[in-house]
Amino acid sequence: MLLRTLLWRATGALLLAVAFFACEGGPANPFSNPPIESGLPPTIAEPGLPVAFSHDSNPVREGDFADPFVLVTDSLYYAYATNVGTVNVPTLASHDLVSWSPVGDALPTMGKWAVSGRHKTWAPAVLASTGKYLLFYTARDRVHDRQCIGQAESPNPAGPFIDRHSAPFLCQLGLGGSIDPSVVRDSLGGVYLLWKNDGNCCGQPVMLWSQQLVPGGAALEGQPTAVLRPDQPWEGPLIEAPTMWYQDGSWHLLYSANQWNTDHYAIGYAECETPSGPCRKLGQGPVMASDRETAGPGGAEVFRDHEGRRWIAYHGWTAPWIGYSQGGVRSFRLDRIELVENPVAAR
């Protein structure tokens, strides 16, 4: 049961409401490269932010559940995450966004093009299409040894999803590969795929991209458009993990930046004219950053619940356990998200 006891705390200059509830535990599994422990002051959100977050008790589920994506169906919420151990796409289900239960691996068998067992299955996103669900996921291409985006299909949101393709759905080999897929619909029902080129793997520029999908989402249509690139000090060497929504006459983009395994990882914001840009950043800092409870928030996705309220799903380390080598996990967190009228950062 959600307890309506509210506490207030500051994240930078942003006040966040906190409501406490119980959550189930899950196994932690350190599976990635050792973290970089910076020893420097963590990234702090700047004042006058264009979006505000109200926190329920976080994490909503203990254990590793990075890059969470929440799919809303008529009766349930499904959450999908980056691989943990031998599970390619860990999946949870909930009736109320409070209690979450595991429902298995949504992608138990990788596509033929992808390498299995490398702990390289990242950042899934699911699109509800007519009579089916499409899973977009990141995996290692066995031919080119780059991270690429695949697509799998299932009649059930819990899977199993099957990738019948012999090659990745999308892979910008000349730009280091492609990762972190996300999907967004426009007001006319058109669907766009957002992603990041993985240039930081190999000395290439890093950008966020957008491209429209054909009706039903089975293929790309037209040409990709670069919508954002790193150009602010707090972002460090990279930006990634885009998610977008439409509200109050504008498209709103959240993205993650800096090193994922430090307390410098944080979430930034940009306003866009269309799902394919152009986009402009508001302010000179992140909108969500490390605080006393959560370190290195990122991997965000925005969704609306059954009552129409907008939420952000994301992961974070529980301070001070930052990094797998320190016993930390990137656990699943949920916040309400609202736009702020006349933010200082937009002036």
Percent of residues in beta strands? 35-45%
Number of strands: 21
Distance between the termini: 41 Å
Radius of gyration: 18 Å
Which shape, going by the Cα principal axes?
globular
* Cross-sheet strand order for the largest sheet: 1-2-3-21-20-19
Q: Please, what is the average pLDDT?
A: 87
Report the CATH architecture.
5 Propeller
What CATH calls the topology is Tachylectin-2, Chain A
The CATH C-level name is: Mainly Beta
As a percent range, the share of helical residues equals: under 10%
What does this structure look like?
The chain is mainly beta and 347 residues long. Helix content is 0%, strand content 42%. The protein has one domain: Tachylectin-2, Chain A (5 Propeller). It has a six-stranded mixed beta sheet with strand order 1-2-3-21-20-19, with no helix packed on it. It is globular and about 50 Å long. The model is unreliable at 1-39 (pLDDT under 50).
Lay out the secondary structure.
Elements: E1 6-11, E2 14-19, E3 51-56, E4 69-72, E5 77-80, E6 90-94, E7 101-105, E8 122-129, E9 132-140, E10 147-154, E11 178-185, E12 191-197, E13 208-213, E14 220-228, E15 239-247, E16 250-257, E17 266-272, E18 279-281, E19 294-304, E20 310-318, E21 331-339
Parallel strand pairs: 2-3
Antiparallel strand pairs: 1-2, 3-21, 4-5, 5-6, 6-7, 8-9, 9-10, 11-12, 12-13, 13-14, 15-16, 16-17, 17-18, 19-20, 20-21
List keywords for this structure.
single chain, 347 residues, mainly beta, Tachylectin-2, Chain A, 6-stranded mixed sheet, 4-stranded antiparallel sheet, 21 strands, 0% helix, disordered N terminus
